[in-house]
Design a protein that fits this description.
Layout lengths: L4 H13 L2 H15 L29 E6 L5 E6 L8 E8 L7 E9 L3 E5 L5 E9 L13 E6 L4 E4 L5 H8 L7 E5 L3 E4 L2 E3 L5 E4 L6 E5 L4 E4 L3 E4 L1 E4 L8 E5 L9 H4 L14 E3 L3 E4 L2 E5 L2 E4 L5 E3 L2 E4 L2 E4 L10 E4 L17 E2 L1 E5 L2 E4 L8 E4 L14 E6 L2 E3 L8 E2 L7 E6 L2 E3 L13 E4 L5 E3 L7 H7 L1 E2 L42
Parallel strand pairs: 8-9, 9-12, 10-13, 11-14, 12-15, 13-16, 14-17, 15-19, 16-20, 17-21, 18-22, 19-23, 20-24, 21-25, 22-26, 23-27, 24-28, 25-29, 27-30, 28-31, 29-32, 30-33, 31-34, 33-35, 34-36, 36-37
Antiparallel strand pairs: 1-2, 2-5, 3-4, 3-6, 6-7
Helix pairs in contact: 1-2
């Protein structure tokens, strides 16, 4: 006999209340109803005396959502609602409505006989869940006329910053003192950032409109800083007027005491397992689905202080530099190299670095010649266990297009050159890029397939080690273009086109140019 949820609830309720006489009466009648078996005249469901009725859907506020973690690490959304008595089942359907004008089916229309179902959960996605109750001919109950539409989002709730707002002052006056992650969301429109934003020890997501990206124009003093985990998504940044001699995104100049390795109890393996005199960020910094125009310094920099950065990720971004090296001659696109090496003690600590970095599905281009000492990446410290407990880490570069970043200096320096450090470099286009071999160090554990990377020398000949071990030379590499101009946020693909036309390069690089 199938267990009846209504009976179980009644038994539990009255047992908790201790009303034994009432319990006996209710139990007897409930058990009699529960004795209906499959094939009997009564329905499997307890109909609650609902007959000859136009049924109503569960109210939207009574539909609950929760996350279920699967054995493979993926997640599902569990959607459940109270029992609707007299029903034979429910009709369900789920849509992705990130673009409300163009909904995408996530879960096809289906009929279920319970009051819950699951669908796959994707990060940062808005959903519309449709639920319609189905009638029961046995009790002459009719279907609901139409489905109830319930909104669900896998994004964390955000404070909305109205379009046209100067964002640094808004965030300064609205940020919340909490240990939980908080979010600020920009509308599809234009904004200014005329002063520094420093999130300090607050975990923050700064996001724009997922479909129609928001635009933020930096003033001379505009910069984004943090000492905690941070996500920046779906924003186009105009950096032409930015005057910061460091990065568009940078670590705090005056970090809180809680950010020091000592305060966090993070030991350094080469420091007799005692904390080093350094600031450490273990949570990730994620820059995703963004575009950056006329960047004259670094995209990311540790800034004035000595920092150990555990996890830096750039995904699906277009970064257009206008960097001739004059703003910061020792800079780079991604810099673990401090401008001041300020330590928590007030002195200097010359070791820091980036433990793990992931760059994928992105394009980096410089529109001017850089003759200075700039590199694409500077790790600063090849011995990560001067900051962290262990020397291991990773640099993963996959499916990227690099164009003149930078042509006159090695691609990277101070890579942690030991077997515990893993470098993955595959499916990358390197146009006018010099000396990958200073980045892909020989003592590292290298996951590099030379046949999947292309390289072309323009300002300098391709380094012998590069074309011998790390990439395939394509002297005739070319692009559909235009390439060497500032991004135009008002145009499709920002008015540029890095679709490669040579044999190998046309099959690799940033996927957006292969579509």
């Amino acid at each position: 006999m199938k267990k009846n949820p209504f009976v179980s609830h009644l038994l539990w309720h009255f047992s908790k209340k201790g009303k034994s006489k009432t319990l006996l009466i209710v139990s007897a009648s409930a058990l009699a109803l529960a004795s209906c078996s499959e094939g009997a005249d009564c329905d499997e469901r307890f109909n609650g005396g609902v007959n000859n009725t136009q049924l109503e859907n569960p109210a939207a506020q009574n539909v609950k959502f929760s996350t279920v973690v699967n054995s493979d690490g993926s997640e599902n959304v569990l959607c459940e609602w109270p029992t609707v008595y007299g029903a034979s089942g429910f009709e369900t359907e789920v849509f992705n409505v990130d673009d409300p004008a163009n909904p995408i089916i996530v879960s096809e229309k289906d009929t279920i006989d319970g009051n819950s179902f699951t669908f796959k959960k994707a990060e940062d996605t808005n959903y519309q869940v449709n639920i319609r109750v189905l009638g029961n001919i046995t009790y002459n109950n009719k279907d609901a006329a139409e489905a109830t539409r319930i909104a669900y989002s896998s994004m964390i709730p955000a404070q909305i910053i109205p379009a046209g707002t100067e964002i640094s002052s808004f965030i300064a006056s609205h940020i919340v003192e909490t240990g939980d992650e908080q979010a600020f969301e920009l509308e599809s429109g234009e904004y200014e950032c005329n002063s520094e934003i420093d999130f300090q020890d607050k975990k923050v997501t700064l996001r724009g409109n997922k479909v129609n990206h928001s635009v933020v124009k930096f003033g001379k003093d505009g910069v984004i800083r943090t000492s905690a985990g941070m996500k920046v998504k779906w924003i186009n940044f105009d950096c032409a007027e930015q005057g910061n001699k460091g990065g568009v995104i940078e670590m705090s100049v005056n970090p809180p005491a809680s950010a020091s390795a000592e305060a966090q109890g993070i030991a350094a393996g080469k420091n007799s397992n005692k904390p080093a005199d350094v600031y450490v960020l273990m949570a990730p910094i994620i820059i995703q689905d963004c575009a950056f125009k006329d960047v004259n310094v670094a995209l990311f920099s540790v800034g004035e202080c000595s920092w150990g950065i555990a996890d830096l990720r750039i995904d699906n971004c277009v970064v257009q530099l206008k960097n001739d090296g004059s703003q910061w001659s020792d800079g780079s696109v991604l810099s673990g190299y401090s401008k001041g090496f300020k330590a928590p003690s007030g002195g200097q600590f010359w070791y820091g670095g980036i433990k793990s970095i992931t760059v994928k599905n992105s394009t980096f281009v410089n529109t001017v010649e850089n003759k200075k000492n700039n590199r694409f990446i500077r790790f600063n410290n090849k011995d990560l266990d001067r900051v962290f407990p262990t020397p291991d880490g990773s640099a993963t570069f996959e499916n990227n297009t690099f164009y003149k970043t930078f042509a006159n200096k090695e691609f990277g320096n101070n890579t942690p050159n030991r077997k515990e450090y893993t470098i993955t470099f595959n499916n990358n286009i390197c146009y006018d890029i010099f000396r990958l071999q200073k980045f892909i160090q020989g003592n590292c554990t290298n996951v590099v397939n030379q046949a999947t990377n292309s390289i072309c020398g323009v300002s300098n000949k391709v380094d012998a080690t590069d074309k011998g071990k790390w990439a395939t030379e394509e002297p005739d590499m070319s692009f559909a273009g235009p390439c060497e101009q500032s991004l135009d946020f008002s145009k499709p693909s920002f008015g540029v086109n890095f679709k490669a036309t040579s044999a190998l390069s046309s099959t690799i690089g940033d996927p957006r140019w292969r579509e």
